[in-house]
Amino acid sequence: MDKTDQLYVQADFSHQDMSGQYFKNCKFFCCSFKRANLRDTQFVDCSFIER
């Protein structure tokens, strides 16, 4: 599933299976990816912002 120009604020992706997803030009603000399955996940021109 492709996601483009999305904004994620304090989203918790912990323990989720995100394998094979494609993110383009997305912004992740204070998000958690702890123990998420990111196999073959692509982040293209994305921003990861911590506090």
TrEMBL record:
InterPro entries, per the entry: 5peptide_repeat
Gene3D superfamilies noted in UniProt: E3 ubiquitin-protein ligase SopA
One Pfam family, short name: Pentapeptide
SUPFAM superfamilies (alphabetical): Pentapeptide repeat-like
Name of the protein in question: Pentapeptide repeat-containing protein
Organism: Vibrio parahaemolyticus
